[in-house]
Amino acid sequence: MRNKKNKNKKNIFILIIVIIILLFSLVIIIDDNRKLTNLEKIFKDSFFTISNILSIPFQKIKENISDINNYEKEKNAIESLTINQELLEENNELKQLLELNHTLNEREYINASVINRNIDYWFNELTINKGTKDGISENMAVITSKGLIGQTIKVTKNTAIVKLLTNNKFENKISVKISYEDKFVYGLLSSYKDGYFIVDGISNNIDIIKGATVTTSGLSQLFPSGILIGYVEDISTDNFDLAKTLKIKSDVDFNDIYYVTILKRNVDEEND
Amino acid sequence: MIKLFFLIVISFILETNLSLFINLNTNLFNSLFVLSSLIIINDFIKAKTKFYFLAIILGLIYDIIFTSKIGFNLITFLITAIFIKNIDYLFKTKINIIKYLNIIIFYRFIGYSILLLIGYFNFDIIFFLRSIYSSLIINIIYIIILKKIIV
Q1: Superfamily (CATH) of domain A40-165+253-271
Q2: Model-level pTM?
């Protein structure tokens, strides 16, 4: 009897030790920069291939009950961005003036469908149906017609995981520009809270008004210039009255994304 | 055994497809079908070690397919499996639905605690509570339906 009790105690002790070790190893494991192993890629691709086939009946039902025009609308909106000649010329002029290399028209668009949205509640990530075979790689900007939504973080042959901007662990702070009086002020998106992106550290002398447009600045290689992030909804000053904190409201409904566009970098750019 | 295998496969497929159907804005239908299948399987596997091993395997597969964060669900599934096996000692209730509610709440609590512990995000009670109430309805219904079909 006593031996059995001791054995049970020993087993529980071992189990606790194992769990503690695993917990510590999680700090390293839950790293978005970790490369997927080949085994993981094969497993993931195989599952989603089978799942796609089995989801055909679901898709048919979905097509009947949802407004499929949304996709066309989004596609058209993105295309209209690219074909507007006047904007293109204006953009070229601005590009020359600012000497920015990372502009939207240098990117190739790849449209993709979301194949899994509910990746374990906590992580704010999406899985899309395009992967390395379509030219997708890690750290590519992902947009919808309403603006920037995130970046690709892990890619397999047929799928890619997109980390949304709403993810608390968004390590690449995004450089943004906010329009005011026909000029721009630059800042960094520092966090996302209660449905708003936060930009802080803006000088108190700059008169930013509510409704001002916030776009990516193009100062980083990851996000090209001019992608809409949102509009200034609220302006407040810090405790010392030195800097402004802006609350930015995005037009994107991050809970309702079905189709996305990936901005593929050029080969030359990737080699840089 | 074949029944259980199909149960797991269907749960994985439904977990993938249902997320595309339901607008996450509703905040009420956050599926945890793989965990639900583990709760059902508990009735069929009496041996604790076997059940824990299955929980580890399911957690690992879940991580590979959905999260790409290997280890996270492996641990949460394992701890939840231990909880499932010992729930009768902890909560003396014969109402199954209360047991299921406790398991789902426990699973969310463990997941949240781990991520909080490793600094993945800051403490936010609303976020945590939302994770719980958003998961209850659909998963309880799923477990009840599965029970009716399988048992």
Answers
A1: Rod shape-determining protein MreC, domain 1 (2.40.10.340)
A2: 0.80
